[in-house]
Every structure is written in C-alpha cells, then in structure tokens.
Amino acid sequence: MPRPSGRRNDELRPLSITRHYTKHAEGSVLISLGDTRVVCTASVEEKVPPFLRNKKRGWVTAEYGMLPRATGERNNREAARGGQGGRTREIQRLIGRSMRAALDPAVLGERSIVLDCDVIQADGGTRTAAISGAYVALMDAVEWLLGQALIAENPVHSGLAAVSVGVFEGQVITDLDYAEDNRAATDMNVVMNDRGDLIEIQGTAEAAPFNRSALNRMLDHAQAGIEQILRAQQQALGGGAAA
Amino acid sequence: MPRPSGRRNDELRPLSITRHYTKHAEGSVLISLGDTRVVCTASVEEKVPPFLRNKKRGWVTAEYGMLPRATGERNNREAARGGQGGRTREIQRLIGRSMRAALDPAVLGERSIVLDCDVIQADGGTRTAAISGAYVALMDAVEWLLGQALIAENPVHSGLAAVSVGVFEGQVITDLDYAEDNRAATDMNVVMNDRGDLIEIQGTAEAAPFNRSALNRMLDHAQAGIEQILRAQQQALGGGAAA
Amino acid sequence: MPRPSGRRNDELRPLSITRHYTKHAEGSVLISLGDTRVVCTASVEEKVPPFLRNKKRGWVTAEYGMLPRATGERNNREAARGGQGGRTREIQRLIGRSMRAALDPAVLGERSIVLDCDVIQADGGTRTAAISGAYVALMDAVEWLLGQALIAENPVHSGLAAVSVGVFEGQVITDLDYAEDNRAATDMNVVMNDRGDLIEIQGTAEAAPFNRSALNRMLDHAQAGIEQILRAQQQALGGGAAA
Amino acid sequence: MPRPSGRRNDELRPLSITRHYTKHAEGSVLISLGDTRVVCTASVEEKVPPFLRNKKRGWVTAEYGMLPRATGERNNREAARGGQGGRTREIQRLIGRSMRAALDPAVLGERSIVLDCDVIQADGGTRTAAISGAYVALMDAVEWLLGQALIAENPVHSGLAAVSVGVFEGQVITDLDYAEDNRAATDMNVVMNDRGDLIEIQGTAEAAPFNRSALNRMLDHAQAGIEQILRAQQQALGGGAAA
Amino acid sequence: MPRPSGRRNDELRPLSITRHYTKHAEGSVLISLGDTRVVCTASVEEKVPPFLRNKKRGWVTAEYGMLPRATGERNNREAARGGQGGRTREIQRLIGRSMRAALDPAVLGERSIVLDCDVIQADGGTRTAAISGAYVALMDAVEWLLGQALIAENPVHSGLAAVSVGVFEGQVITDLDYAEDNRAATDMNVVMNDRGDLIEIQGTAEAAPFNRSALNRMLDHAQAGIEQILRAQQQALGGGAAA
Amino acid sequence: MPRPSGRRNDELRPLSITRHYTKHAEGSVLISLGDTRVVCTASVEEKVPPFLRNKKRGWVTAEYGMLPRATGERNNREAARGGQGGRTREIQRLIGRSMRAALDPAVLGERSIVLDCDVIQADGGTRTAAISGAYVALMDAVEWLLGQALIAENPVHSGLAAVSVGVFEGQVITDLDYAEDNRAATDMNVVMNDRGDLIEIQGTAEAAPFNRSALNRMLDHAQAGIEQILRAQQQALGGGAAA
Which residue, B105, C47, C120, F74, is the most exposed by fewest CB within 10 angstroms? Predict the structure, then answer.
C-alpha cells in the first residue's frame, strides 16, 4: 500500500537546515522537512523568570506560532483572536521541555534562551520539525554565548531531535505529511537524544487504538528517523557540536 | 528503596468512585485516588459545535479545572487571571480525545456531552483520575439518554481508564502521588481501553531520559494498574457497562 | 399557601458544616444548606496587596466560583470565557466585605487570608451559604495562625452569618431554594454579626416593590435564621470561637 | 457635629437635571448633584438579547463608566485595562435592575433601551445620581418612541429615584459627598418608586455594624430625599410624566 | 457647490474652549467645535513608564475615548468589549505624539502628564479637536506644576493646534463635520505648531486619490484654520502662554 | 554628510520580490528591501464581514505581524500578550486602506481577500515594504480568481506602492533603514498609485517639525522611489498587471 507521498514507509521527507537565516537572533535556523518550513530563532536574554531569580540557574523556554496562511485554509491570527489556543500552548510546552532536557541550567547561568518557532508553511510534522530546528538554533546561541565569553562551558550535554511516526492504512510510517496525518489511525511524536534515549513520547489513537506491538514498531521507525535528523543537524553545525 | 507513600511499586492508591455525586448533571461522579479528588460531571446538550452541524454526528468534549486551594499553595483562579493556562488546556484536550476514543459519534447523534473535571483536592495524578472518573460520568449520561429514549443504542463501545506511571529512584512505580511525582525522573500518563490497547501515551523525561526497556516496564505497570481501575469502574457501574 | 419546599415560612433548610474538608488549606469547610453545597477554603498568604504594604495591617478577600454543572443547565466555565462575570464579581465583593467586618486587620498583621467559595451544587442561596461557611474557614485559618504563633491574638471580634429572605406568594419566607427564589417577588440577602447588628443588607424588588413593613418582617425572619446559623457555626467550631 | 459639607443632616446637595444634553441619543440628561455630574443617555435599539427573542417583550439595560480623571486621582481607563472592574459591573447591574422595575416590558415591545451613565466628575453618590438621571433619560426615550408611533402606550408605570444615606459621626445623613462617604460608618443606597415602595436597598457596614433602629432612620432620610428628587425629575420633565 | 453645513470652504465651525471644566484634574478643558464636544483633562503623575526610569526625563501620553452614544448610532462601550479598538489606539497615539512635540521632556522632569480626551458628542473632527483642546489642558497642568514649584521652567516650547481638511465635491474645505466627512473624497488631519511648521500630517484617499496640487491647497487651508485655533487657545489661556 | 548605509540620498535599498513564496495561499510574496523581509500572503475567502452582507461588494483587509525576533531585541509575541498592540493595528489599517484604494469592490463581488503581512526580519520600512509586497500578492490572488472563473474582470484598477522618506541630518533621504529611521528628525510614509497620485501620506515630526518646503522635497523623493518600486512589481508580475 503506497503512501500518498510515494515515500517508503521509513523514508523521511527531504530535510534541509539553514543556519543564520535571519540576522538579529543569537541563533536563527530555517528547517524544511518536505513542504513544512519553520523559522526557529534563539534569543538570549539576561534575565530569568521570577521563580528562578537568584538561584544561579538559567531557563530555556519556547513559543510556537503559525502564519495565518501557513495552512490550506487561513487560520485566524492568534494575536487578533486575543490569545494562544490550546494546540499552540501544548506544542510550545513540548518544545520547551525538550530543549531543557538537553541542557544543564546551572552551566547556562542566570539567563534565558527563548526559542521562537514560527511555521511559515505547514504540511504536517510542524512540532517535531520545530524541535529539530530549535535545537540547532539553541546550539548557535550557545556558541554565541561562548564567543562572548558570557559562559565558559557548553551547557548542552546531548544531541536532540524529534520525528513523527504513525499507523497509516495498517502500516507503520515515518514523518507523516499532512495528507497522511489526516488519515492516520495513530499519530505519535517522539523526541530522543543522541544516545537513543527517549525525552518525550506522545502517542494518540486518532482513529484506532494501538497495541504494544504497533508501539514498538513505531518506536523503531522513530529511532531510525531521528538518527538521520541528528546527522543532518551535526552536518549543519559543522560536525563539532555538543561533544 | 521504599516509596514515600510506603506503597509497593505496582500498588495503586485506594480508589473510590461515587456516582450521582451532584444532582443536576446527567452523569456526576466523585473519584478519589488517595488524596486526589475530582468531581466529574457529564452534561448532555442538544447542540454541536459549528463544524459538526448537520453531519448527524455527536461531539464529546472536556474541560478541566482546579479549585484554587486544591494544592499545597494557592493557585490564582484561572477565571480571575482571564483565561485558562497551558497546562489546563493540555489536560482538557487529553481528556476530550480519550473520551472520543471510547464512543461512536454517529450513534450518539447530533448532540454533545461535555465532561467537566474539577479537582477538589490534588495529590498527583489528577489528569488520569479525571479520565477514569469522566468515563463513569459519560456512561451515566449515556444511560440517561437511553432512559429518555433520546438514543436507541449505546454509543460507548469500549471501557477506558488511565493511570500514571514513572521512574522513581531507579524503580518503575505506578500511580505517583505528589511527593513521588515531584522527584520522579520520568512521568508517563497512559490511557487504555478494556482490550488492553493504547489510547494515549504521554511520557516525559522530567529529570532523566528513559530507554525502551524502562518504557516497556512502565507500560506493564500501566496495564496492570488500568485493569484494576477498569474493574473498579465496572463495579461502580453495577457490572453492566459498555461491552 | 405552602412553599414549594413544604417548609414553614421561617424554616431553614437542613444545614451541615464540615470542617477540614480538604487537606491543604489552613481552613477548609463544606457547607450544605439543603441541596446547596459550597466548599469554602481559607488560605493564609504572607503578603498583602500593594495598597497595604508597610501599613502593618492585614487583608481579607474572597473569590467565588461555581462548577459549570452546579446548576440545572450547564453554565460556560468563566475561565474558558476569559473572565469573571458581573454576578460573580458582585458576590465575591460581598463575601470579602462581610469577612472584613468581622476582623481587626491590625491584629491580623501584614498578611492576607483569601477565602475561596466554590459552589459544587446550587439550589438557591449560594452567596449567603458561602458567607456562613467562609466564616468558619476563616476561624480555622485564624486558629492555624495562632497555633503557628504567627499571631498572638485572635483578630476576629464577631460572629457572622448570612441568610436570604424574601416575599413569595405574599408571604415572607426564610432561606429560599431555587424554585422559590425563581418565583419570589422580592429577594433579600442579610449579613449580621452575633450581636444582631447588620453588616450588609441587599434587597431587590425582583417582581414587585416592597414596603417598609415587608422589609421589617423580612429582617425579623433574617435575624431568626441567622441566629440558628450562628449556633450551627459555633457547634461546628466546638463552641470556643470568637470570644 | 456639623457635616464637612456644612449641610443639615437631611439636606440634599443642589440638584440640577438638564434634558437634551447631547443631540444624538433618544434621551440625554446631565444630572448634577453638588459636584457629582453624570451624563445619562438612553438609546433605543430595535433588537433584544438572544434570551428574549420572539417573546414580545422588551429589554432595558444599563452601562456605567467614569472618565479617568473624574476623581481626585486618575483611575486607569477600563477600556485600556481590558475590561470593566467589579465595582463598575455591580453598579450597572443595579441601575439596570432599577430601570426594569419602573417599566412593563410587554408594553415596550421587542426592543431595547440602553442607559449609558458616564460620570464626568465624581464627588460621591455617583450610582444614585446615575439612577435618578437615567430615569429622566428613559422617560425622554419613551416620549420619542411615542412620538415616532413605535409604541402606543407608555410602558413606564412608576416614578423612580435613588439616594444615598449613611451614618457619619453617629448621625444619620442624606446624600453623602466624597469626604463624608470616605469617613462614614455605614453607607446605604436606596431606590424607591413614587409610591414610597422600595426597589433596591443596599446597605454596607463600612466601618461599624448598624442596628435596626439606625436602618429605620436611614430609610426615613432616604424617603425624604427621594421625594425631593422625584419632584425635581417631574419638574424637569414638565410635570407630565408617568402618571 | 455649497457645503452641507452652509459654511464657506475655509470656515471653521464655532469654536469654544472652556478651561477648568471639571474640578479634580490639573488641567481640564471642554472644547466645542460645532457639535463636536471633547473633554480633555491633563493629569500629573509623579512617575514615568519603566523605559524612562532614572533618565531625568518626563513623559506625556494620551488616551482617547468616546461615550457610547456620542454618535448617531450607539457604539458598544470599549471597556465592555474588552479593549480599545484600532481606531482608538491610532488616535491616542497621534494625540500623544503631538503633545510630546510641543514640550521638552528634560525640563518637565521625571514625571508624567496624561491627557485624557473623551468625546461627549461627535460630529466629525474629534481627533483634531482633541489635540487642540488637550494642548490647553497641558498648558494648565504646566501652570499648576509651576504654581506648586514642582518645576521651575515652562517645558512647553511651542503652540500647537490641529484641524481636518479634505476634498468634498471637488472643493478643498476646512474642518469637516460628520456629513461632510462621510462623503469626502479625501480626508486629512494636520497638526502644526505656532511657527507654521508641521508636526503631523495624515492624509487618506477615502474615495479618490489626490494629487500634489490638491495636497498643497489642503495644507493652505489647514494653516489658515490652525492659525485661528491657535488664537482661540491663546485667548482662552489669557494671552500669556508658551511665549 | 553620508548616510549610515552609505547610500545616495535618493537611493532605495536592493529590492527583490519573490512570488509563489509559500504554496497554500492564492497569492504569496516575499519582499526584501535591504534587510527588511516581509512575507505577504493573499487569501481568498468566499464570505464578507456582516456590514457588507448582501451588498454585492467585496472586501479587502490586512493583518500585520512580526516574528518576535525579527528585531534587534526580542519583542514579546502579541498572541502571548493577549492582543495586538496599537502600532500593529495602526499599520494593518493603513495596509488595508491602501489595498482598497486600488480595487473596485463591486467587480470583486461578495468575497474577501485577506492580506497577511508578516515581518520575518526588520530593518526599517516594514509597513511600506508590506504595502508594496501585499499589492503583488493581491494581484496573484486576482489572477487566481480569474483563472478559477470566479470573477470575469480584474477588479484592480491601479498600480500601488509605498516608500518611506525622511529628514536625516538635514538631508531628505529615501527608504530609511533602522539606523537612519532611529535618528531621523522626520519620518514620512507615502503610498501612491501608478498615476503619481497620493493614496496615503503620514508624516511625523519625530524630533523636529518640518516645513512645507521639506514636505515637498520628501514627496519628490517618495515619488521617485515609488516609481522604481512600481517597475519592480511589474517586472515580478511579468509585465502584464493592472491594465
């Protein structure tokens, strides 16, 4: 049963990672995964939220947005509607938690890094693309901090990438595009580090429950896809990141 | 290494499910899991959201709230702050998706069931307790609809329950209370149906990544815990639900 | 002309006051007045609003809420609607003013007590039940402050309770339930201290104006009802409260 | 003990009522009570709120506002703060209820009259001045409706006015200005119709509880003050209003 | 082609400026331009916004509002709608910028002057009337500051007034009223100082583009109108303002 | 006195216009003017706002946004702050008015075109770049409508472009970048059609008033700059746009 995209079941969409995409941010990355395109910027701020003040620990957080016409039908602009919706908040919380899992806040010191992930064009998998791209922007911001001698040591201790997997027409597939995602029985987002350990797993039975065996096959797919993305991140970063 | 609660690693907290807890709602349940107490009401409304109008399908959705002093320190009231926070929205989306996975919307017909899950007292595991309790309230609302002859057939096709599992001091444990949750390396919420299939799995590496082996042990714990909760739900429902 | 509830004109509904209803709050009370059930918690906070800073005086305030299905038809959740409505704000202002009338803020010292009154089930008279219940929660919070040696003297100088009265089918009645309230010509909420003095009186001609004579009869009823509630509060408190 | 204003205890401040104050509204009144000045407009709208549709009954409602510098210190503009505060909502609900008590909605027919009461300058008693002024604007709007032959009969069946009374330095006084209100032990707002019946009574023990005797003396004062205001309203209206 | 108002093309509506219109504000002006009436108050506040703290410079800002029935049809109250609309924000930004152009913030010192411009009755040209009136209120607040010896020197270095001009039925006209504004091809608001220099120019092709020649004729009209308004302001101020 | 950018006083920054920048929108353009980059999409919607229903006329509107780190310092995300700020609303109103001036709404028919202008990177002149880019997106959406046979005739009757001009160090300059804009005495945005007529002119004396002569020189600069941009738009559109 071929996928709508014609890809092999375990085949990622073409992936490209462009660093220094915009000029102001300490880290700025455009990640394209097929037709999904996300701008990820990392902004260093010399302050922390109130609950962390005077604790000698840093903070990493994320915000997520979508241009109104990133999608097939125009979505009302969240700023115009008066606030971020539930899906947006859920996604940005996921991105923030993932980034924090890759980094030692004590080494970062009492400052913040804000990752802004804005979807320019959506074709499925925006949240996992955002995580994979935000990680590269985070690395660039860390490099900037090291270059400015604001920190002496790299606080990022792990590689990190994410991918979506799912069950589509009875097959486990990797990196669902919108057409596939829309008809998938199950959809799962997986975040892993570069040691193959899990950081986040969020699986949802959209149309049909899934058993442990399907879960295991999805995780195998996820791990293989994430390994490819980790390599692409390292290639984009010049091979020298995160030890 | 004993748990702070003194429970065995796979031991649920005492669970009680009280039906008909309040008088107005078509379904009304108080679920207590240890010191976590959630009021779950199911309200039948003879309308559907705009995107479902004239499609002869029903809608099930959920809202979640917490009394300001359900917790150790008072949280500002969300209504007074001007809106629901990200955590609240994430949880209510999870509850709603889970409920929809247990029910055939075409059999429900063009009407809505709203599950309100309000935490009276919190001690960890409020979202999974809310799911397990909301399911019973949903069943009572369905019974009411059948009794009123508004529907001819039971739209609920599966049992459904949820539990939290996690890794604490290197051990996989079931049903974390607040003290355990606060210090757990990993926290995972699992929703399953009564055939042992997964509806949702949300695992987060709070303090340390987890490998596939830990994931599998957590899922074993989850499945065992959920089976107990499913039995408690059936007992509360008088043994004759769903199925 | 019998009341829908079958009660005598001056008869309160069955009243019960349960202290220590939830475990986290410094004061926590469930008050039931017939089918009206309100959870009242008192939270001690070691801070005051900006306008009271460095004035060596404390602050007592209240918030009021209702579970969405506390009523016959589901009300939209205020947190989801984006703010508290006019009725909610009016009620919580009334509760806060009443509590402040029972207490010396200088003796309380520079800290706050927040009374949260959340209606679990509504059947008329929620605001007066909230006041009567919140007073007991306030007393428990004060006892906790004394026990913690945070204050040396009891700042509460008066007993305090509230009841609703009204004119129904030409008769003055006490403690209107929803069915009575809905058809009453006049509705009046009265808050009194334990010396029989008035703290608040709010009377509204819902359907028909009322004259001074009706007002006086309503006040007689109110005073008799409040005396019973004051006794029930003292009994719940073990007989040793407030001087 | 003379009042700060030097008035007799039962003396109203100078009262003036200017009709046709602005040109667009169907009714438009400037009421001045001493230094308190409120613009009250009545707007006729040929629609009713959803809950009244197709019920052949009209609706009367009110909104209240204050220019930011109507007071001694500037208050932040409610529109800029993002919503109306609790005090504002409480007041506009009171004005609306009072107006509805003077009018038969079936005679008004399926249309609305919106009373906007905006305080240009505040010196105590703004809510009662707003009620007394809004009544005259309402009468002008009704006259306009009669003149347009949109209604055949006057739906207003009563006169209506309001005044504040209170206890100040142990004396019962009428029509408190800001300096008096600020130091009063008790503050009470009373709305009465032109038959001397009560429409609303809202008494608050600001600094000291009040007994039944004080309440009665305050009501005597209120009745005398309201009678004067009713006469001033009739004089402004040309002597021919509301039978 | 005569104007609907019957005025000559370059004729202003009757202009009156009433100082000390309300009693609390440091400056308080009612400006009437034909049927357009705006209350402009200037409030001195001994604080500055965060971005100016400790910079030894003052701040002047403005807010704009309209009573709901200032217009032919009632507009919903912005405070009730939950925020200020785009038009309001645009206007108040314009007023604030204009005021700041007339004053040296270093001479004002670290304090703020807030200009509140509230339209009591609208008949076109409210924003330019607001600017011309706010300037007089600003002058009165400055006089108050000098009188209180809070400042030693007048920080206002220029006169300032505004007028609207436009193209109507092919003619350039000054000071459009609502009937003219509604049918104008072009509408332009001009703010000038008392040396004839431009502070703001905002021209919009409402119905038809305009060429440079029309622009020049509009500016000639604006200059002539502004000179008249500047004289009226000086007359109101007693001839001794701003040198 | 050379400009910080080293450009001649009348020199535009390098301009590029990329059509079909994203795949979903009916018109999608990336406009780059130096380091200012704006994504402009045009979305066709088969509906109109309520005030235009059943009037056989279309509607064109615009929204404007900025990625949080489009600027040198991160701006808080408007969606997270709970609404669009005054500057945003002012800009999107300007863009919408400008677009409406280029098009006959009766020819468009009862449908809407929404222009979303999102700034990816800001370096001054974002609002004028947005207008120039949105015009090309509008043309592409019109071409799509013609291609779909939804309209029979091109409703766009004029070319349209915008540029900023200003006074910097005493010189009139064209197309200010951020460094120039920040230190300019005067800043003016000009929108013109392809016949050299003015659509909008908004000039602000940021630091110093400007006289008629400076205004005229700024307009000369604007006209020359706009002519270049109009040519670039036509080139991007293949030379065949707008009659």
Answer: C47
pLDDT tens-digit series, residues B27-48: 999 999 999 999 999 999 999 9
φ/ψ of F9, rounded to 5, equals: -60, -30
Q: How far apart are CA A108 and CA A96, in angstroms?
A: 15
**Record: contact E205-F83, CB cut-off 8 A:** no
Whether pLDDT at F126 is above 80: yes
Confidence check on the interface: ipTM exceeds 0.90, yes or no:
yes
Q: Where are the beta strands (DSSP E) in F57-180?
A: 59-66, 112-121, 160-168, 171-174
Helices B212-236/B126-147 angle, 10° precision: 40
Which strand (E) or helix (H) includes residue A187? strand A186-193
Name which of A43, A74, A120 is nearest F39 (Cβ-Cβ): A120
- Mutation target to probe the D interface, by most D beta carbons within 10 A, among E77, E87, E117, E126 is E77
Interface chains of chain A (3 or more CB pairs under 8 Å): B, F
One-letter amino acid of E84: Q
DSSP H/E element including A59: strand A59-66
Cα separation values, E174 from E169, E218, E230, Å: 13, 8, 15
Q: What is the number of other CB atoms lying within 10 angstroms of the CB of residue F9?
A: 15
Distance from CA of C27 to the nearest CA of D (A): 25
Mutating which of A97, A157, A199, A204 best tests the B interface, going by the most B Cβ atoms within 10 A?
Answer: A204
Of D211, D207, D103, D123, the closest CA to residue D164 belongs to: D123
CA nearest to E131, candidates E159, E110, E107, E155:
E159
Kindly tell me if the per-residue pLDDT of E243 is higher than 50: no
Q: Is-above-0.80 flag for pTM?
A: yes
Q: Tokens 């490209």 label which residue?
A: A16
CB C96 within 8 A of CB C115: yes
- The encoded tokens of residue D131 equal 């009620």
Q: Which of E41, E68, E82 sits opposite D83 (nearest CB)?
A: E82
Partner-chain contact D205 C205, CB within 8 Å: no
Q: Rounded distance, CA B31 to CA E26, Å?
A: 61
Residue D109 Cα, gap to closest chain E Cα (Å): 20
Q: Say if residues C95 and C126 touch (Cβ distance below 8 Å).
A: no
3-class DSSP state of F99: helix
3-class secondary-structure state, position C210: strand
D90 to C92: CB separation less than 8 angstroms, yes or no: no
* Cα separations in angstroms, E17 against B129, D22, D211: 68, 17, 51
Chain C residues in contact with B39 by the CB 8 A cut-off are 67, 120
Question: Cβ E212–F200 below 8 Å, yes or no?
Answer: no
> For A30-52, what is each residue's pLDDT tens digit?
999 999 999 999 999 999 999 99
pLDDT tens profile E16-26: 999 999 999 99
Q: Nearest chain F Cα to A39, which residue?
A: F120
- Quote the distance between the C-alpha of residue D74 and its chain's center: 23
